[in-house]
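Rather than argue in generalities, we have chosen a single entry, letters for residues, whole numbers for local backbone shapes, without further comment.
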Amino acid sequence: MCEEQPSGVDGQADGTSVGRRRLLLASAGAATVSLTGCLGGGGDGNTEPPAAVTIPETATCEVCGMVIRQHPGPSAEIFYKDQQPNGHENPARFDSTWEAYQYEFEKDGSGWEDVAFYVTDYSSVDYETYEDGGDILITRHFEASTFVSATDVTYVVDSEVKGTMGRDLIAFSNREDAESFQSEHGGSLTTHDGVTPEVVAGLGM
């Protein structure tokens, strides 16, 4: 299920690189995913959520087991209350956003409570897209400062740009950045509440 993809290690890309574009190019009629979200979590409201952390060099994805920092694309982290994901300390770590949501849906159904959900914020980094093996890939960013709460982003869903595990949810804290990315690379726009199991099932390889 988890075959390795061509990678841009530590944010470095081989092949043709395309620098980050910040001009607003989106059309007024851009499609938006409008499905209703069903994620829970958030803690008891009396304490601050844990801060995002830098993904360790040897950390692997909770879903597919691949070493996260060796491959391109969005990363994600989820902290759970009184739980140890796969037997290690929080957070649960992922090499794609859609796998993080898949994992969250499963754990939510098992009664786990998420207290913080972070995704790569492509509005906060100088990312690159590049061609490799016929695919258009996007760089990986794993430092704590590059993460933002999943509730504070606009996602570009199912664009032509891929990460480690194929087409993904690419997050921007600035909606205009998401619209610009969508205009250039296709896909649709949604937010955290619009990510459902059906949306996730349409992503990946």
In short: The longest strand covers residues 154-163. The chain is about 15% helix and 25% strand. Residues 9-19+41-201 form one domain.
